[in-house]
Specification:
four-stranded antiparallel beta sheet
Length: 153
């Protein structure tokens, strides 16, 4: 299905993508705090990566810096969901959820595609680091209440 926008025919999906990118860009320019969040599961595959990383790439395309996109996926989202007291930043006394990637995602957000290690609750749950290869598929910290979702209090 196609649509005509400004005298140019394009697929509806492309028109919607351009519209969303423009509106998000306007919000960024206006100083709105941006958070990462989607109706997809964060780990759902999309465009050769997962939904979270793809959303971060699109936010950079819309005007965030790579570091702002990383904060949108971590501390900004934790503040929005009122979970900043135990997650969203790496600090003493917090859950200790973190990832390691190959590259410099603070300079090139697509380096987030190069996942090397995942820790949940200071517990290694997934790794491709040589000598530490691990595939533990349940990243939930023992005893974590999952009623209504991982981060619902």
């Amino acid at each position: 299905m196609t649509i005509t926008v400004s005298g140019r025919k394009m697929p509806v999906t492309e028109a919607l993508r351009q519209y969303a990118e423009e509106k998000i860009g306007n919000a960024i320019k206006a100083g709105v705090t941006i958070c990462v969040g989607t109706d997809l599961l964060p780990s759902d595959p999309i465009d050769g990566t997962n939904a979270t990383v793809r959303e971060m790439e699109l936010l950079v395309k819309a005007g965030l810096t790579p570091m702002q996109a990383i904060k949108a996926a971590t501390s900004n989202s934790a503040r929005l969901t009122d979970t900043i007291g135990f997650t969203g930043t790496l600090e003493a006394g917090k859950c200790g959820d973190f990832i390691a990637v190959k590259g410099k995602p603070d300079q090139n957000i697509s380096d987030m595609r190069n996942l090397a290690l995942v820790s949940k609750g200071c517990r290694l749950v997934w790794s491709e680091v040589p000598g530490m290869v691990l595939r533990r598929y349940n990243p939930v910290v023992p005893g974590m209440d999952l009623g209504g979702g991982t981060y619902i209090k």
